[in-house]
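user: Here is a favour to ask of a fellow structure person. I have my own habits and do not want them to colour yours. Could you put it straight underneath, so I can go through it closely?

assistant:
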Amino acid sequence: MCLGVPMQVIKIDNETAVCEIDGVRREASLMMIDGVKVGDYVLIHAGFAIERLDEEEAQLTLDALRGALDQGLLPE
């Protein structure tokens, strides 16, 4: 199963962002989208930021993912 996970950008170095959600940090390439700034939420898939999200959309998606995890619908 492949999922895109919303994460908040906390640092940018050239075309690489450090993104964080729930204390987990990952590096992601920004080569697929332009204009990303620190503080933005992006959808991360396979090491790439593939879409910018507004904070409300990111939180709704994260709430749905957390609910699915709580119900055992996704592997941990």
